[in-house]
Amino acid sequence: MSQNKEREHSCLTGACQAGISPVNVAIVGASGAVGHELVKVLEERNFPVGELRLCATSRSAGKVMSFKGQSLTVEETTPDSFTGMQVALFAGGSASKEFGPAAVERGCVVIDNSSNFRLDPEVPLVVPEVNPGDVKWHKGIIANPNCSTIIMVVALKPIHDAAGIKRVVVSTYQAVSGAGAEGIAELSGQTGAIVNGGEYPPGKFPYQIAFNLIPHIDVFQDMDYTKEEWKMVKETHKIMHDSSMGITATTVRVPVYRSHSESVNIETNKKLTAEQTRTILAQAPGIIVVDDPREKKYPMPLFCSDKDEVFVGRIREDNSIPSGLNLWVVGDQIRKGAATNAVQIAELLVKYGCLQV
Amino acid sequence: MSQNKEREHSCLTGACQAGISPVNVAIVGASGAVGHELVKVLEERNFPVGELRLCATSRSAGKVMSFKGQSLTVEETTPDSFTGMQVALFAGGSASKEFGPAAVERGCVVIDNSSNFRLDPEVPLVVPEVNPGDVKWHKGIIANPNCSTIIMVVALKPIHDAAGIKRVVVSTYQAVSGAGAEGIAELSGQTGAIVNGGEYPPGKFPYQIAFNLIPHIDVFQDMDYTKEEWKMVKETHKIMHDSSMGITATTVRVPVYRSHSESVNIETNKKLTAEQTRTILAQAPGIIVVDDPREKKYPMPLFCSDKDEVFVGRIREDNSIPSGLNLWVVGDQIRKGAATNAVQIAELLVKYGCLQV
């Protein structure tokens, strides 16, 4: 009772006055790059936030962040951080392993941006444009897929529905912010040093990233593929509910601040023309088609950042096989590749009435 | 007679004293990025240069360049520039259209780095590691392939010989120096301006290239593929003498100064393991395998520049099809992708005795 009163009292969005049940939200890892974006996206999408609790490690506790014009102080995450909360958004890292079960025990639905639970058969892995219904069978935790995977599957889904995808060959061009705020700082500091005749040794990345490419993201695993490359295979199979789809990936870090790009080659069962594909993609949710090459219109990471949609261009038939397509897909991996997708999952929970009152 | 005397007199390499017939070489477009590299590569590879004549447009005439410690003045190209020369190396652009026939009439073999004659059925298109014998049927002009194509076919050839290549899906990551000295200046100036809070509008490239990717190299043509993408298809077919090979390409400009990188997916007729592929490539001419991911060893453009070889790493079986491979291929596109390949063709002409004495 007192909890409800407190909740109404601290409703940050006016949702309660508008007759919408406000949702109490905890963000874990609030002070990092994805955490900041989660706060921003909750605000921008006007998610009906009741109380907002910002949590992080003790190192970041005490920082002040802003939400809808109000200042909120970051607290150290403890099991009790989740008391009275209904949704817990975990930005990444190991925190969901440590605190996820405590949040679930306290009645929260955990939406986890880390890779900790993504391939757990008890945990739905959700991209709202692709498999929204999977949120319904959650058992407390819902996983947010890897950024490169999210961006790709949003583009694959409508093609799979229309023509059946047999095989995908993807090569990525991944921005440094995929490695968090430290990745951004390293590209910036390193470029500045080089331009001004100085040096800035690699720290976050294994080699200099300024004016270079590093074909190595995350650790190396089976068959000499990186974990990032396997994520694009295994997570896509799970999200698309189709493990027969052939997928092979090469993931590469590039000296771009934000937005991942992907060169995606697709073999379909049924032939699609470029024009049919353009129409299908333009009508699909979460996609903006930018594809008028004669007018020099195609997606580029510099112009796709801070956007919630996935941008698709360079749509071409691949005549090296009977039913082939090439796409160039770009998406802001902190937005749609992380924060936006997580908030969209929370929106589905509200829509489907999946939250404890 | 007097010509021969003059030639001996001006022999720049000591080839004549060493009993090797010196070769008189004209370089057209000597003052550009590829022209400079041609001079450097002739020197480094100790090509038996007799007289060296440096030619360019009137704008660059009068510039002084150095070869083996001697200063040479750039002349304006005229038909008479080729009198007494045996090999004419054309760095690029339209010069070979204008002066190529005049050079051939004067007994020169033209080695042309432009795309003007590459698909002409009367003109051999040669990568010495792949189709050296094609120099023998030249009718005065030999074409040097597109840089991205050269780098790819050096890696494809030994695999094609061992297992038969059915299909290739390639995505490129191309350095700004592929657009010449102006491309380098634009990345450098633009990055410096951005780092120091200024602006540097695009000129050479259609959009900002610093911290961005541009999926557009050369003009758009059939089926919305760029000319650069079609070059990788059509030139590969011609060089490999196999137009049945399925090839599809997506070419992308990246903010890297030098060396092109390519993510190459290959379907072979006969299955090759990653280990077999590694062995085959390591034994092939012009290739250095850098592939020890656990030790963070893979090719990167920053470390492949100023090298004549093509570097191959990230060699993996692609299990999305029965006989698939993924490679990450990097090569200096001004060296092996242009100047080195041209000088190697000249070396073949000497070896096969194809030059007029």
What would you say this structure looks like, in words?
The first copy, chain A, has 357 residues and is α/β, with parallel strands linked by helices. The first copy, chain A, folds into two domains: 3-145 and 338-352, NAD(P)-binding Rossmann-like Domain (Rossmann fold, 3-Layer(aba) Sandwich), CATH 3.40.50; 149-333, Dihydrodipicolinate Reductase, domain 2. In chain A, 29% of the residues lie in helices and 22% in strands. Chain A contains eight helices and 14 strands. Chain A has a six-stranded parallel β-sheet, sandwiched between helices. A six-stranded mixed β-sheet of chain A has the order 10-9-11-14-13-12. In chain A, helix 4 (147-163) packs across helix 8 (335-351). The radius of gyration of chain A is 21 Å and the shape is globular. At the A-B interface, strand 9, helix 5, strand 10, strand 11 and strand 13 of A face strand 9, helix 5, strand 10, strand 11 and strand 13 of B.
